[in-house]
Design brief:
This protein is of the alpha/beta class and 769 residues long. It folds into four domains: 184 residues, 2-Layer Sandwich (Dna Ligase, domain 1), CATH 3.30.1490.20; 125 residues, ATP-grasp fold, B domain (D-amino Acid Aminotransferase, Chain A, domain 1); 112 residues, Glucose Oxidase, domain 1; 298 residues, TIM Barrel, CATH 3.20.20. The protein is built from 27 helices and 29 strands. The chain has an eight-stranded mixed beta sheet. The protein has an eight-stranded parallel beta sheet with strand order 28-27-26-25-24-23-22-29. A six-stranded antiparallel beta sheet has the order 9-8-7-6-12-13. β8 and β9 form a beta hairpin.
């Protein structure tokens, strides 16, 4: 249609640099033959021609640069200067005339939709609605727009919305310092009887086997803005099957009127009626799953609407943040002792303690001090500059999929929404603890001081790639935990017990402490070391691999010669799972230490190394069950895949209760190829990319997917070999775990592999049509 306008049919995901994330996503959904209302995109080229190349372009650039600096500091004084600069930038946009050629292209596309048709005019900034940044509600959208003049006015409003304090604060927080560009979506309005948002993963727990739908009567902006507490439907993705329904609180609806949006109050009986029937909820879930399938299984945030006859898909984007291990089974919420003051919906995980600050509007935001708990009736995107200073946020209204909840998750701020009476029951200055994982606000500080505040990493200079495949870190030293936790690592995929034990026990052999009756010293020392790591990473998962020292390594410890056999080939000798069965004393103490840690930070899970046979694993798990750890709910039990027999026995292991597997590629390669990687004479034989090794890995990952368990790989290859990464991604691995210095390059390699897989999938789908 030209340089300035493109129909949805002309766009794909690869056009995000000219159509913005929202426009490109809609084009992809139309290509997938999903039920999208017709429309077109005013491309970023139009913004560049009119605004950037216009008379005010240089002044806009200068003000934008200064505005980002002010937004990054987030002080009240800089906030005032930011407001003034943003007001000036918006004035410059509105003062810029649109050339006739651009205006004609836009209006011609609008007229092709129908005669005076009602449309939604929605911002689609370049970088918006991407896998890395949602810009949830930051830029302007206008609904129920009719006529040429109204469309051009709404377009200018969208362009000007690039220059608001909330947008500049968001960009500054996420390290997005480049010149902004804006495309704009124009889409025929749906006469919505009910509408809302569906997440194809649980935003509170990260569970991928759940679909969460927030629904309200009328148009869906009341859901995404947090203006009402929507009805929430939770479904099992396997059916989909409706599991629970929670009726919210909606006193009004937004509908189309002669002069635009119209607000209508609901009667008491109307307000109590569910927004969806059970059948409609299932239909929404099916539509959301279809979107996810088209995007290669990546979890999606889907906006939908029912008119009198049809279900429509009005937008979809990748979910930018999921808590903890999104691919693991949901864990039980950690309960604490304390008086509960307020309950709501658990919208963003984490815990924080601080004094309450009750505020009624964003204009009062300067009153919030650093570390205070923001309590507000609702938090629309205008609250963002205030949110960046809050320790946590609690709102009276809103659902788990509203803009405030999405942004809180992206910022790492614990958040509770839909608490109904929070502004009435909580008082400014009152000390409280907010648990965003359970949706509860406690009086005072009932949680241990070491875990009341969940650390948030400072904003990076450049936003890391977002990936569906988790990138975990291998760790062993507690003193590095805080520094590594401040990176974008998704958790600890391998917490090596060997280094931790050696340090915690002062170089003494564990059995030497046991022989001298120092069990409690062992347990407490190990507990303290693990807890330092688990609290730094909470609520991200930490997978503790129980001690797997070889006999020659144990002999080097103080007193080791009295307890260790002299083996000629310790690499395949007395170690791992078999050692726990034959010599359970030390393993029992490790289990006791883990149980103590999980009482405070339940994000820690157990991994059993070097499993050779079913019977030894079964005996080992009996030891776990008999320990205090085995009685704790929500514990995940992993095994290492180092011995080739796991390729054949994984179904048996899952039958015993194993729900995670991590491939130790170093040991697996040695045992597959019969080579000692430490041998200088045989060094050239060690190859993790050998076809036999790759086939074994493929079989393990494929089997794990079929059996419904988490799969991972810890080793050097993902951080050094992009082809190896692509092999793992194509196999469908859940995560990889690498050394701290390799997190960034590994995530980039994973993201590149995922893009190639998605493109190949899209190509094959089109070829099949």
């Amino acid at each position: 249609m030209g340089d300035y306008v493109a129909t949805f049919e002309e766009l794909r995901l690869t056009d995000a640099d000219r159509a913005g994330g929202k426009g490109a996503n809609l084009g992809e959904l139309v290509a997938a033959k999903l039920p999208v209302p017709p429309g077109f995109v005013i491309l970023a080229a139009a913004y560049e021609e009119v605004i950037q190349a216009g008379a005010h372009g240089p002044e806009l650039d200068e003000l934008h640069t200064r505005g980002l600096a002010a937004a990054a500091s987030a002080t009240p004084a800089d906030g005032q200067r930011l407001d003034e600069m943003c007001r000036r930038m918006r004035e410059l946009v509105h003062d810029t005339p649109i050339p006739p050629s651009v205006r004609e292209a836009i209006l011609s596309a609008y007229h092709r939709l129908g005669d005076g048709v009602l449309v939604a005019v929605r911002s689609s900034a370049v970088g918006e609605d991407s896998a890395k940044a949602s810009f949830a509600g930051m830029n302007v959208s206008r609904t129920n727009i009719r006529g040429d003049a109204a469309l051009i006015t709404a377009l200018a409003d969208c362009w000007a919305s690039l220059f608001t304090p909330r947008v500049l604060t968001y960009r500054a927080r996420r390290g997005m310092h480049d010149r902004p560009e804006m495309a704009v979506v124009v889409q025929r309005m749906v006469t919505a009887r009910s509408a809302g948002v569906a997440f194809t993963a649980d935003p509170a727990t990260g569970a991928l086997d759940r679909i969460v739908i927030d629904a309200a009567r009328g148009q869906g902006e009341v859901v995404v803005s947090g203006a009402v507490t929507p009805d929430t439907y939770v479904l099992d993705a396997a059916g989909p099957t409706l599991l629970t329904t929670q009726i919210g609180r909606q006193s009004f609806v937004i509908v189309a009127g002669p002069q635009g949006d119209r607000r209508i109050q609901l009667t008491e009986s109307e307000a109590q009626a569910p927004a969806l029937t059970d059948e409609q909820a299932v239909a929404v879930a099916r539509l959301a799953l279809a979107v996810q399938a088209h995007h290669g299984g990546r979890p999606q945030d889907v906006e939908w609407a029912f008119d009198d006859e049809h279900l429509w898909l009005v937008q979809a984007r990748p979910i930018t943040v999921l808590p903890g291990d999104a691919d693991a089974k949901p864990t039980m919420a950690h309960t604490v002792e304390g008086r509960v003051l307020v309950r709501g919906l658990a919208a963003a995980p984490g815990r924080a303690t601080g004094p309450v600050r009750v505020l009624r509007s964003p204009a009062e935001g300067s009153a919030l001090g650093a570390g205070e708990i923001l309590v507000a009736p609702m938090t629309n995107p205008d609250w963002l500059p205030t949110l960046t200073r809050a320790a946590a946020v609690v709102t009276d209204s809103g659902g788990m999929t509203c803009h405030a909840a999405i942004v809180a998750r992206e910022l790492g701020i614990p958040c509770i929404v839909g608490a109904r009476t929070a502004t009435a029951q909580l008082t400014t200055g009152e000390p409280v603890t907010v648990d965003g994982s359970t949706g509860q606000v406690y009086a005072g500080n009932p949680l241990p001081a070491s875990i009341t505040a969940v650390p948030r990493p400072a904003p990076a200079a450049a936003e890391p790639e977002a990936t569906a495949t988790r990138v975990y870190v291998n760790l062993g030293l507690p003193e590095t935990a805080e520094r590594v936790a401040a990176t974008d690592a998704d958790g600890v995929g391998l917490l090596r017990a060997e280094v931790l034990l050696t340090q915690a026990l002062g170089g003494r052999h564990p059995l030497d402490l046991i022989a001298r009756g120092e069990d409690e010293k062992f347990i407490q020392s190990v507990t303290d070391s693990i807890h330092r790591i688990s609290s730094a990473f909470a609520p991200r998962p930490v997978i503790y691999r129980a001690s797997d020292m070889r006999s020659n390594e144990f002999r080097a410890l103080e007193g080791g010669s009295r307890y260790e056999p002299d083996e000629h080939n310790p690499m395949i000798g007395f170690r791992g799972c078999y050692r726990y069965v034959r010599q359970p004393e030390m393993f029992r103490l490790e289990l006791a230490a883990l149980a103590r840690v999980r009482e405070r930070t339940p994000n820690v899970h157990l991994m059993i190394p070097f499993v050779r046979t079913r019977w030894e694993l079964e005996a080992c798990l009996e030891l776990v069950d008999a320990s205090p750890l085995g009685r704790q709910r929500g514990l995940h039990r992993w095994v290492m895949a180092e011995v080739p027999s796991v390729v054949y026995r994984l179904p048996e292991y899952v039958g015993l209760g194993i729900d995670g597997i991590s491939i130790g590629s170093n040991d697996l390669t040695q045992l597959m190829l019969g080579v000692d990687r430490d041998s200088e004479e045989c060094a050239e034989l060690f190859d993790e990319s050998d076809e036999a090794v790759l086939d074994a890995i493929q079989q393990i990952v494929t089997s794990a997917r079929r059996l419904g368990i988490t799969s991972s790989l810890c080793g050097q290859a993902p951080s050094t070999n992009p082809d190896f990464v692509e092999h793992l991604v194509r196999a469908g691995i859940t995560s990889v775990s690498v050394s701290p210095d390799a997190i960034g390059r590994t995530r980039r390699a994973v993201a590149a592999a995922e893009r190639r897989v998605l493109l190949d999938h899209a190509t094959s789908v089109r070829a099949a049509r």
